Each structure stands twice: as structure tokens, then as C-alpha cells.
Amino acid sequence: MESVDILIINGRVLTMARDMALIDKGALAVSGDQIVAVGRQEDVVNEYGAARILDACGGIIMPGLVNTHTHAAMTCFRGLADDLPLMTWLQEHIFPAEAKLTPDIVYKGTLLACAEMILSGTTTFCDMYLYEDFVAKAAKHAGVRALVGEVLYDFPSPNYGPVEEGLKYTQTLIDAWRDDPLINIAVEPHSPYLCSPELLGKTKVIADKEGVPIVIHLSESRQEVAQIQDKYGKTPVQHLAGIGFLAPNVVADHCVALSEEDIETLKDYDVKVAHNPESNMKLASGVAPIPKLLDRGITVGIGTDGCASNNNLDMFQEMDTLAKLHKVYSMDPTVLDAKTVVGMATIEGARVLGLDDQIGSLEPGKKADIIIVDTKRPHLVPMYNVYSHLVYAVSGHDVVTAIVDGKVLMEERVLKTLDVNEVMDNVNEIADKILER
Fold first, then answer.
1. What would the pLDDT profile of 255-292 be if each residue is shown by its tens digit?
2. Which sign, positive or negative, has the C-alpha torsion 413, 371, 297, 325?
3. Is 254 helix (H, G, I), strand (E, B) or coil?
4. What DSSP assignment string belongs to 362-430?
5. Model pLDDT for residues 232-249, shown as the tens digit of each residue
6. Where are the beta strands (DSSP E) in 255-293?
7. Radius of gyration of the chain (CA)
8. Helix, strand, coil % in the chain, rounded to nearest 5
9. What is the mean predicted confidence (pLDDT) over 119-146?
10. What does the pLDDT average to over 374-379?
11. Distance between CA atoms of 24 and 391, rounded to whole angstroms?
12. Which pLDDT score, from 0 to 100, does residue 48 have?
């Protein structure tokens, strides 16, 4: 019998692999940071022994969720400026608040985000914000997998000052976190309306040289599209295509206001899309044409956006909202079925971030990023269809165990890497200072 570090037994295993195998009485074996076996419990326990056995108690064993777009440290601004239009929200409230950010605020706000994400089943997130070295450090401390990048724009940043220093800061991030098992770095210009073609070209040079993703807000609202059309005579998508920016390593956040030509262009360049339904709804940005994107074969993942425009990081809630939003918007109840949505939150999200060779499905050789959902709860009984339950009935509070890179971060809803009360107290102190200003 082969010895491994962890056996997870007595659960319904949702692999999200290409064959979409669902193993009713299944088990997993984990050695180090990797999954070494997935299969029927009888077979796995006969072949592997472990000092640590996690009993799923009949629950769902599945890949950890992938949040493809957020601003983690904005937990500090949760509820600060609600019920406002996007540009008013950004320019009159968020940007002024961010001008007073410090590395300490970003670090502590990100720790709170990590606690919230672990507790609700997210094991990987993609972040765009300021002082991203401290976002990376917080994610590393919490044990969460992250793709992070410093936001770049034409005006000076409270972190690095002029944009040329921001490009240097980005390169420093790439060098500092190169080959880290949990932290990956992206190049992240904010948007076409805050970044000149010259700046966008420089960011692309770095991303291509280093072989890393490039993340950008794109066509988030009709107002943004009109602004770019007035300035360049093209939609934001066509503008980026025209300057040679679009490529398979581009992650486009939001993509709400798209023309048919835009959709074809995104497909032609194999651009990946991060869909943020709750943020788009709250800011009244519109409804992204996700069914059309999927029909064209465009890879789409799910993001929560930041807590100032959502106001939580619960990916299960985001899945529920996403599915229902597109059904009512299209007046078609068959649109975005539950299995598709679960895929968007797991393996497709991993593809968006360029991490699908490591995470997003439960397969031997992949990283052990795993969650267990407790299904012995009144609102989850009976269960006719596991995908349906995950989208329409499960909430983040039903996640009882979370593992990242083979390390148990939460067991029986107790965080192992963070003191959640201390984390919350720290952010409450920050909020008191924000109110004083």
C-alpha cells in the first residue's frame, strides 16, 4: 500500500475533468501538493494509506473555485459608496479613497478577503490593485493561490508615482515572485480610457517577454465605449486590436458593451473574459452577452469584482446570480445551464488565468486545490442534480473544508492559517480611520 499525506473519503467527487466524471462514492489521495489518485473509494483506500483522513460525510468533493477578477483589499471599502453610477463611484469616491492607501491597509484588507474567500470555497483569485506586493504577501500568508498585478494608468499612482516607475514595479514583482508555488504575476493596465496606446504597448512588451497574462478592464459600460469612440473613432475592443494589444494571454474584465464585431474580434484573438454579473448589475453597467461569447467558443470565467461594488466575494452567490440573470435577460430558461456555470467557476476560470494545467479539475498530477461542500443541510435535501444544487441552492457557508496546494486551510469551517477575529478587528480599525477622514 502506497503512503500519501491526505485521503479524502466518503464523498461525491465532482472532477470537472474533460469526461466530467461524477463519482458517487468517491475518494482522493493527495501527496505533497498534488492529487495522485481520484476514483471509487473502495479502489483508492485499497491502494493508498494516509496518516490524515478527511471524511466528506457524503458531501461534494470538488475543485476549489476560481475568482477571475477582484480587488481584494477593497474589503476595506465594503459599503463605503453604494448606489452610484460607475464613473461617479470611481472618480468621486474610490479614487480619492485609494489615494490614501498604504501597504499596511492593502495587506490587512487582503487578509480579510482571503479569509472570506477560503470560507466560501474560493482557492484561487486574480487581483488588480495597488501595492500588489503586499497582496501577494497576504495571499501567501493565507495559503491562497493568486494571480496578481499592479494597476497601471497614465496618472501618478499613490504607490509608485509616475507610470514609468509602475512598469519597473511590475517587472520587480515578476522577478520577486518568479517560480513561487502559489503566487503568479500579471501585467495589469487599468483600461483603454485610463491608459494611452503608448502605455498599453509597453505593458504588452513586458507581458510577452515574460510569458505572463495581461489583465485589463474592457468595455465595462456604454459610457466607456462612447468615450473611446469619441477619442479614437473605434470601440474599445477595436481600438485594442488596432494597436496590436489583443492576444491569447489577455484577460478582459467585464466585456459588457460589445458589438457583434467586437465578439468576433475577441474570438479571433482568443482573448479570455472575466464576467462579473453582480458588480455589473449593482453599478448598472449592463448585462454582458455571455451566451453569445460561449456560443463563439470564447473562454469565460467568473469574477466577483471588489467588495466596494458587489459587496461580497462569495462565488456560489455569483454563480446563482449569473445563471438567473442571463435566463431572465434572454427570456430563455435553458440559457447557461448549471453544469456550464459550475465549469465557469472552476476549470474555465483556470483557463482564463492560464492555470488550467495546474488547477480547475480533480485529476492525478494536478495541484491539490480542493473544497468539500456539506450537503447534510435542510436547504440541500433532496439532491437530484449536483450541478443544479451547486448553482441554485449551495452558498459559501456550506463549504466546510478547503485545501490549497495540498495544505488544509480550513477544516470544519475553522481557518487554519488566519486568526479571523484579529483579521476583522484590523480592518474595523482601518474603517474607523477612513470615516474620520
1. 999 999 999 999 999 999 999 999 999 989 999 999 99
2. negative
3. strand
4. --TTSB--EEEE---SGGG-S-S-HHHHHHHT--GGGEEEEEETTEEEEETTEESS--HHHHHHHHHHH
5. 999 999 999 999 999 999
6. 272-275
7. 21
8. 40, 25, 35
9. 98
10. 98
11. 19
12. 97
Distances (CA, A) of 32 to 4, 14, 48, 141: 8, 21, 14, 18
Contact by Cβ (8 Å): 249, 328? no
pLDDT band at 90 (very low <50, low <70, confident <90, very high): confident
Domains of the chain: 2-63+361-415 (2.30.40.10), 65-352 (3.20.20.140)
Is residue 10 scored above 90 in pLDDT?
yes
Specify whether the CB–CB gap between 430 and 109 falls below 8 A: yes
**Matching residue, cell 493596465:** 189
Task: Evaluate if residue 429 carries a pLDDT over 80.
Answer: yes
Nearest to 407 by CA among 143, 118, 54, 182: 143
Query: Is 272:252 a contact under the CB 8 Å cutoff?
Result: yes
Strands 300-302 and 272-275 come out as parallel
Cα distances (angstroms) measured from residue 178 to each of 68, 159, 211: 20, 21, 11
Q: What is the pTM of this model?
A: 0.97
Q: Tell me which H or E stretch contains 209.
A: helix 197-210
For residue 9, give the 3-state DSSP assignment.
Answer: strand
Determine phi and psi for 97, rounding to 5 degrees: -65, -40
Task: List phi, psi (to 5°) of 262.
Answer: -60, -45
Share of the chain above pLDDT 70, in %: 100
Closest by Cα among 339, 396, 334 to 371: 396
